[in-house]
Amino acid sequence: MMTESERETQPNASGPDDASLRALAHNQPLVVTPATTLRETLYRISQGREDAAVIVDDATGLPLGLVTLREMLHVISFEGGDLEDPVAVHMVGAPLTLAADAPSHRAKVMMAKQGVGHLLLTESDGRLFGLISPADLLGLRAGGAEALIAEIGAARDLDAMTVAADRVRRRGAELFHAGMGVESLCQWMSGLNDLIGMRIVELIEDEFELPPVPWCWLVFGSEGRLEQTFATDQDNGLLFVPPDPESTEALREAFLPFAQAVNRALHHCGFERCRGDIMAGNPNWCLSAAEWQQRFADWLWTPDPEALLHSTIFFDFRPLYGSSEPVDRLRAWLIAEAPSHGRFFHALAELALGAAPPLGWAGQFTFDRNRDFPHTIDLKLQGARYFMDAARLWSLKHGIWATSTAERLRAAGEARGRRREDTAAEVEAFHLIQRFRINQQLQSKDPDAVNRVDPDDLNELHRLMLKEAFRQARKLQTRLRQEFGL
After folding, report:
1. How many Cβ atoms from other residues are within 10 Å of residue 443's Cβ?
2. What are the two backbone dihedrals, phi and then psi, of residue 322, each rounded to the nearest 5 degrees?
3. Where is this region: Disordered (predicted)?
4. Least buried of 155, 196, 265, 309, by fewest C-beta within 10 Å?
5. Which CATH number is 146-340 given?
6. Alpha-carbon distance 419 to 436, whole Å?
7. Do domains 146-340 and 343-484 have the same CATH topology?
8. What's the confidence (pLDDT) of residue 150?
9. What is the 3-state secondary structure (H, E, C) of the chain?
10. pLDDT under 70: residue ranges of the chain
11. How far is CA 42 from the centre of its chain?
12. What is the number of other CB atoms lying within 10 angstroms of the CB of residue 274?
């Protein structure tokens, strides 16, 4: 029998955090109309295994609210509710709702932040698809995160947020050393870092009078891929929806001071500023929805070196805080538009093949002759990158919504008809390299050395494992060459 400590470090049983919620809603929820009585609702719940019912409009089929078994029992027992009352009188109106095709990670973070036990899933036209509960998701609350989630939610200033962020990192290190799987750990860290980021944005938002238009804080790079480790900087932007094109510039000027304050606050809490200034406080990345779409369109149409560099960061975007609908529309446009841009993919493949895995012809390690860190391998640029680049390319080419590298590889493998065993080998190789990176990040105090590993510091087994991971990267590059004739 597993101990509590062992249970805390087990992999996420519900699957990847980039998996669609549609795949996790296993059962149809109990649906009742507004006029259905409490008596009838309780009876129907008792006949099934549900603990909640969704109230749906008779005419339109749109969900109006939610009522749980616990709430109904409380109303009847302590508030004088009558069994003949219409259920609509006691429902929770406007319950937490997400699109059925949204990733499960977003649901985990929303439910943890709001402290709710149910989340409605809807189709694009607003009709009900299903109902999700924590039992369908699991994962984020593993590893003793309950107290951390509560601490983040209770923080009232940046000093408290700094303490909470530090505790998340220290607990993450403990879980890593206890053996938690890399994918589960990164999802765990990303989920809690999302809550930290959301709370920071909330705190700063209270200090500003922002324009009354839809807006959303975006994250890119490793945070967008749900692959944050222990050495990460900020990659973020802001999207807003102006009522007309003429008001775009005025709205940007209104949002910029707020975005810059959030960037400062994130830095204060341990999320270093981006060296390349890819942050929402930069006017270049505080854009309207139309401007963001035009930026992506320009990068697709003109794949020059700058566009390709941006593709490695910005194409991993996802919404963090605010109105996610415009961001989801941007993602939907991108995955529909990108597959037709063959020249872009050819250039992206050339970029992915620009550096070979660090293995010589006889299978020995090779090095990049870095003077400051001789006899080391940069496991980000000469390791994880090979899998990230290929996964990004294939996800765009095949219209895959996912942003995490592992889930992109799985979905692309399925779309391309590859054997699951082969895809699993790629994912395992990627996660092995990530584990070596994390171990180095937890040991090194030098920010320039956090991804660099000297193979001589590894034992023989780990050197063999690392070589095999690089061989998987080499096979992956071979397929790219064959596919694009390079």
Report:
1. 11
2. 110, -150
3. 1-20
4. 309
5. 3.30.460.10
6. 27
7. no
8. 86
9. CCCHHHHHCCCCCCCCCCCEHHHCCCCCCEEECCCCEHHHHHHHHHHCCCCEEEEECCCCCCEEEEEEHHHHHHHHHHCCCCCCCEHHHHCEECCCEEECCCEHHHHHHHHHHHCCCCEEEECCCCCEEEEECHHHHCCCCCCCCHHHHHHHHHCCCHHHHHHHHHHHHHHHHHHHHCCCCHHHHHHHHHHHHHHHHHHHHHHHHCCCCCCCCCEEEEECHHHHCCCCCCCCECCEEEEECCCCHHHHHHHHHHHHHHHHHHHHHHHHCCCECCCCCCCCCCHHHEEEHHHHHHHHHHHHHCCCHHHHHHHHHHCCCEEEEECCHHHHHHHHHHHHHHHHCHHHHHHHHHHHCCCCCCECCCCCECCCCCCCCCCCEECHHHHHHHHHHHHHHHHHHCCCCCCCHHHHHHHHHHHCCCCHHHHHHHHHHHHHHHHHHHHHHHHCCCCCCCCEECHHHCCHHHHHHHHHHHHHHHHHHHHHHHHHCC
10. 1-19, 25-27, 49, 134-143
11. 37
12. 19
Distance CA 455, CA 440 (A): 12
**Cβ contacts of 411 within 8 Å, gap of 6 or more:** 395, 398, 400, 402
Q: Which CATH architecture has domain 12-137?
A: Roll (3.10)
Domain 343-484 listed as CATH 1.20.120: yes
- The residue with tokens 């649906």 is 31
CA atoms of 6 and 260, how far apart (whole Å): 42
How big is the CA angle at 171 (ends 167 and 174), to the nearest 5 degrees? 145
Rounded CA separation 101/72 (Å): 30
Q: Per-residue pLDDT tens for 87-128?
A: 888 887 777 788 888 878 788 787 777 777 788 888 877 888
What the block records as the tokens of 198 is: 């959301």
CA distance 367 to 370: 8
Q: Compute the distance between CA of residue 388 and CA of residue 150 in angstroms, rounded to an integer.
A: 33
Contact between residue 76 and residue 83 where contact means Cβ atoms under 8 Å apart: yes
Token pair of 307 as six digits:
């566009």
Residue 202: per-residue pLDDT:
93
pLDDT at 50: 72
Burial of 131 (0-12, 13-18, 19+ CB in 10 A): buried
Per the CB < 8 A criterion, the answer to whether 408 and 391 are in contact is: yes
